[in-house]
UniProtKB/TrEMBL annotation:
InterPro entries: Zn_peptidase_2. GO terms for biological process: proteolysis. GO terms for molecular function: peptidase activity. It comes from the Bacteria. Keywords: Hydrolase, Membrane, Protease, Transmembrane, Transmembrane helix. The chain crosses the membrane at residues 118-140, 146-168, 201-223. This is Zn-dependent membrane protease YugP.
């Protein structure tokens, strides 16, 4: 039977994920209306921080969309969404600084980031084939297929768990850099930064929790079927 009481926990985690996505959008929109005291745009903040870190060769580019900001480790480029690239708000400078945090991690060979990059090819493979093996295993009642699917799914879960310290560290760096360089000032602006980055981090926590609970469910079913054979 595919349904298991643990599904209730997964549904709760899924609800948390939806709430986290709603919160990150709400926090971003709320603090987009509040300008940072520095008056600098997200692109200017990113460029200044990159130069201070000696990362002169890392360009800052604009990308379409909202909350599409990211650091590309393959091409070594920071891409900021339009509201962040040209925005002077607390949200803009917070997100821009966060992405610079990832670039600094890359430069310093931050262990968790290195391990995540190392895992990436395996994750691409496992995340595509694991669901097929699990579905096939349940339909055919094959514990072998389920077992292989669990192993491959575990790689994807491990990747999401490794992502957590990477994101938390980037946010921590961002807060310190913004205060030290005077991009934000006073407790109210610092509170805004914490709200924006904290909401973003919650989405990663929720996603990791859902995957972990699903993995535990599959493991439980696997051992339960083995005991019945």
């Amino acid at each position: 039977m595919l349904f298991h009481p643990m599904d209730i926990l997964i549904f709760i985690a899924f609800g948390l994920s939806l709430w986290a996505q709603f919160r990150v959008k709400g926090s971003f929109n709320r603090w987009t209306k509040v300008n940072a005291s520095s008056g600098m745009t997200g692109a200017e903040v990113a460029r200044r921080l990159l130069d201070d870190a000696g990362l002169y060769d890392v360009p800052v580019e604009a990308v379409r969309g909202t909350l599409t900001d990211h650091y590309d480790p393959m091409k070594k480029v920071i891409r900021l969404s339009e509201p962040v690239y040209g925005g002077t708000s607390i949200s803009a400078v917070s997100v821009a600084s966060h992405e610079v945090g990832h670039a600094m991690q890359h430069k310093e060979s931050y262990p968790a980031l290195k391990f995540r990059h190392f895992m990436f090819p395996a994750v691409n493979f496992s995340s595509g084939i694991a669901p097929l093996l699990l579905i096939g295993g349940f339909l055919l009642q094959s514990t072998n297929l389920i077992g292989i699917g669990i192993i491959l799914f575990s790689i994807a879960v491990a990747f999401q768990l490794i992502t957590l310290p990477v994101e938390f560290n980037a946010s921590s760096r961002a807060k310190k850099l913004m205060v030290a360089d005077g991009f934000i000032a006073g407790p109210e602006e610092e509170r805004g930064v914490s709200k924006v980055l904290g909401a973003a981090a919650l989405t990663y926590v929720a996603a990791a929790l859902i995957s972990l609970l699903e993995l535990l469910k599959f493991i439980f079913i696997f051992f339960n079927q083995q005991s019945e054979e």
